[in-house]
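Please, structure for the following, as C-alpha cells.
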Amino acid sequence: MASSYEKQRAKQRAQTAVACAVENGTLVRPSRCSRCGSTKDIQAHHPDYSKPLDVEWLCCKCHVGVHRPRRQGEIKMTFRPPLALWRETKILAINKGISAESLVIQALTAYMKGEGR
C-alpha cells in the first residue's frame, strides 16, 4: 500500500499533467459538467491518479459530491478543532455518556438538517 506521501505526489503529478495538457491543447476542458451540465467552475476529477489524463470534467458541486462519503448520514472527520475546544467537547460528551466524535457528528447532522440554523 502506498504511503500518504506517495499518494499526494501521485495526485500532484496528475494535476500537473492535466494543467500542462490543457495549456498545450492536448486536453480540452469542456464548458459543461459531465454530470449536471453546469457551466460554473469546471474541474478535472481523477478516478485513478496512475492515469493522469483520464479525467472526468465536473463542476465544483459534483466534484465535492464524488469525494463526499457514500453512505447517507456518514460524516467524515477531516479536521481537528483547537485543543481547548476539543477538551470542552470531550467533557460535554462524557457528561452525555457518548464519545466526543459522536457528539460532533450529532451536531453536524442536526446542523445539516436545518436544526442548528
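The chain has four helices and two strands. Strands lie at 42-45, 56-59.
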